[in-house]
Amino acid sequence: MRKIIVIINWIARQARPYIKSLFIIFIMSFLLSLCGVGMVIASKELIDFAISGMLNQALISGLFLLGIVLIQVFMKAAVSMLSVRVSETMSNNMRERLFLQLTEVKWTEYNQYHSGDIMTRMTNDIGGIVSGIVEDLPEIITLGSGVCAAFITLLIYDPFLAIFALLLVPVAILLSQFIGKRYMKINIKAKEAESKYRSYLQECIEHMLVLKTFCHEKRSCRRLKELQDEKKRLYLKSNLTSVSAGSMMTGGYWVSYLIVFGWGAMRLAEGTTSFGTFTAFIQLVGQIQQPFMGLAQTLPQMFSMAASAKRVMKFEELSKDDNNNLLDIGIRIRNITFDDVSFEYKEGNPVLRNITTEINQGEIIGLIGASGEGKTTLIHLLMSLYKPNEGSISINHWYKTNISLRSMISYVPQGNTLLSGSISYNLSIGCPDATTDEQITALKEADAWEFVSKLPMGLDTIIGERGHGLSEGQSQRIAIARAFLRKSPILVLDEATSALDVDTEQRVMDSIINLQPRRTCIIITHRPSLLEYCHRIWKINEGKLIEQEKHINEVVASEAI
Ligand SMILES: Nc1ncnc2c1ncn2[C@@H]1O[C@H](COP(=O)(O)OP(=O)(O)OP(=O)(O)O)[C@@H](O)[C@H]1O
């Protein structure tokens, strides 16, 4: 019960900013339900007046009925337009906020979620919550107020029938209690299955090349089908739960309807009721009982909304990256010190151990070590994506917790990290204010301008996901230009020239040495040729950092310092 209250509070918090619009929707929905009762009364009057030959009164009742119909048409249109407006604004804002929250989550925790799962929560689950608030809740209010209005009217016409019609209330409450819990459990499982299925689908689409070249298409289809079937099975199961509840309610409704019909027919035969009152009985009993059937259908949606809310709330529970206080980019970095830094992803499995070293301003460091030794991890620690388990990383021998060096670093990660869009757009990620001339200069420094200038659309050439349309080496050079554009004092290249030929790599490295202002640079590489440009070489071996002697051509770059 406490969990349910937490979820309801959370949903209420989401709805609060739209309370005025929601209130208008609720009021209009309430008036619409009153219109339903008004129509019953007007049609009863119309029938009774017509039977007794009072044509003028019948005409007035007819006009009254017409007025209600028109009001209903107008209000339904207004409710629909307002609902769409509120839904769109609410879902956009929720997604925006969630996205922002995710950007602030600790990197370790963020990485526990598959991107497909995140997408499902951001799209399906938020969509479910919003439609629950904007559509289902007003419907419940409409149904509830409709029941009250019809009950009072029926009470006036025939108290016995009113009480009888209410017999379904305790049944509905018990049923919703029992079925609600079960439904929510299955629904959460179904949503998890949906996330799994979407994640797999997304990954297959992303890595179609791998699937095709390994002739894995049929197997992938089979796996996709398995996930789809599991999702279907769970959705069918949750649907069965809600349908059984609905069927029980419908059965109850028809039994009571027939009893009321028989009761009314008997009274009509006895002459103790008019034909108009009889039709009103039938309609009013329907007005009370139909909402209960409606509730049987709407309540599962409420539980589904609660299940979605629970999934979205999970993201709010993730720990925030407390290293989001970015260091002022204006600070002059004289040195960066690693002081007895140790790190492990999993307890008892250290990746880096007791690393103590220093980089001075303007130095070019070559970072080497066998694959999986922890080079990228060291860089991620430097960028405050992770925190050392022990020790600290400081600048200018000054250490403060919760300060991130990230703003000081231009990073060229491993792999193809271009986004779909124009080359110019990709460069603007490095520096949003860079002019076209500055972008061209950066491309020249990264030895990329020659090929970009030959493209028919030049800087405006659209490239696909992960640089599709460019060669691996071309994509790498654009990623390097993007990092050059960010005028931060530290440049980190993580195997960023691995796809370049020796001559191109040499030109890029010459540019790095001559970059103005001079950058402190860490180059992760497996290529000995690159080490010629480095002043010092760090090797990571079994978690330890060893400073290596330089034998290679004693530094092209040392003159540059
Ligand atoms: N998110 C993670 N969770 C758990 N272990 C991880 C994670 N990322 C990396 N590791 C492990 O940490 C170790 C170091 O990984 P890292 O990527 O830093 O190596 P690397 O030296 O950069 O390798 P490469 O040269 O192949 O790029 C590896 O054994 C890897 O399996």
Automatic annotation (TrEMBL):
It is a multi-pass membrane protein. GO terms for cellular component: plasma membrane. Keywords: ATP-binding, Membrane, Nucleotide-binding, Transmembrane, Transmembrane helix. The chain crosses the membrane at residues 21-42, 54-75, 140-157, 163-180, 240-266. Gene3D superfamilies: ABC transporter type 1, transmembrane domain (1.20.1560.10), P-loop containing nucleotide triphosphate hydrolases (3.40.50.300). Residues 23-304 form the ABC transmembrane type-1 domain. GO terms for molecular function: ABC-type oligopeptide transporter activity; ATP binding; ATP hydrolysis activity. It is found in: Cell membrane. The keyword Ribosomal protein does not apply. It comes from the Bacteria. Residues 331-560 form the ABC transporter domain. PANTHER family: ATP-BINDING CASSETTE SUB-FAMILY B MEMBER 10, MITOCHONDRIAL (PTHR43394:SF1), ATP-DEPENDENT PERMEASE MDL1, MITOCHONDRIAL (PTHR43394). This is ABC transporter ATP-binding protein.
